[in-house]
Amino acid sequence: MEGSYEGRTLSLCGRDAVQVYRNTPSPVDFITIAGRLAPLGQVTYNEFLLRAQVEKFEIALFRDGRAIVRGTQDVD
After folding, report:
1. What counts of helices (H) and strands (E) characterise the chain?
2. Per-residue pLDDT tens over the stretch 34-60
3. pTM for the whole structure
């Protein structure tokens, strides 16, 4: 189902960042995600990590689907 998510979020105390991770880690397709994020801001990636700057947020997405979103403490 589009928009569904089975994972967790955790506010990283003192870092103005939130970690988002899946209950069951699985590889993500950086090429597809980079293509979707590129119209919104700067995106770079290699085989291990995708980084994107979207408005005031900096997103670091790891190969296993875990992400750290800087610029917020709101887990929602």
Report:
1. 1, 6
2. 999 999 999 999 999 999 999 999 999
3. 0.81
